[in-house]
Design goal:
- The protein is an alpha/beta fold and about 230 residues long.
- The protein contains seven helices and seven strands.
- α1 runs parallel beside α2 and α2 runs parallel beside α3.
- The protein is globular and about 45 Å long.
- The structure holds iron/sulfur cluster (SF4).
- Iron/sulfur cluster (SF4) binds next to loops.
Length: about 230
């Protein structure tokens, strides 16, 4: 499946040390409006260049503001343009439940990034992020998904399930720990996929990372196949 993979913006309030778009990075910043993302998606979709959209974003202003912007794109595509392609939305872990519920209504798949394999790594490299909050968001998505599947009259919620992304080259965490963390996530949250990515800011990739397909880039958009 070919997706337009795009960031609403690579501006971000956070300073996660493994991320090329973190606040202290001196990359060029750019930002699309929700309408621009909708127009781009529809243009590519109408000429059969893509099957859908994978939309993520740096955190602008606040988690809720950012999540509202992401939901607005998906809602406009579905309601205004009758878009029937695939939509994958990244969710912001501490955004309000109501916004996540709306995201699940319009998107096929949701994901919240686990970021790093261990709480120790997270505390060292992204101290403003909370492993507890991230896992709570995953648990809530799993519960909403199961409720939607079990009750035909319940609102639609991300029928293609949820996934996550783990950065594996930001510190010296070993392969066994990385694979153990991925296995636990699959089991605990019924994830469809744990995407393994190498940090664009570090080059000490452990073997598990080198064996897997990975790609990070500083651009805010590309078209790529997703499996
Ligand atoms: S990982 Fe996400 S939240 Fe952290 S700096 Fe990068 S874009 Fe911002």
């Amino acid at each position: 499946m070919w997706l337009l993979k795009i960031l609403l913006t690579n501006f971000c309030l956070y300073d996660c040390q493994y991320c090329v778009n973190c606040r202290s990075s001196n990359v060029l910043r750019a930002r699309f409006t929700p309408d621009e993302v909708v127009t781009l998606t529809m243009d590519f979709y109408r000429c059969n260049c893509i099957d859908g959209l994978f939309l993520s974003s740096g955190v602008i202003c606040s988690s809720n503001y950012t999540m509202k912007q992401l939901v607005l794109v998906a809602k406009t595509l579905r309601q205004k343009h009758g878009f029937r392609g695939y939509i994958h939305l990244k969710t912001i872990p501490d955004a309000d439940d109501e916004l996540i519920e709306q995201a699940g209504r319009y998107a096929d798949r949701l994901s919240v990034n686990i970021e790093l394999p261990t709480e120790i790594s997270l505390a060292k490299l992204a101290p403003k992020k909370s492993g507890h909050t991230i896992k709570l968001a995953m648990g809530n998505s799993r519960a909403a998904s199961e409720e939607s599947e079990a009750e035909p009259r319940a609102p639609r919620f991300a029928p293609a399930g949820q996934s996550t992304q783990m950065i594996v080259s930001a510190d010296e965490t070993d392969d066994r720990t990385i694979l153990g963390a991925a296995e636990t996530l699959y089991g605990s949250y019924q994830l469809k996929r744990v995407y393994i990515r190498r940090s664009a800011r570090y080059r000490t990739a452990p073997r598990a990372c080198r064996r897997m397909h990975h790609r990070c880039c500083a651009s805010i958009g590309c078209i790529r196949p997703t499996f």
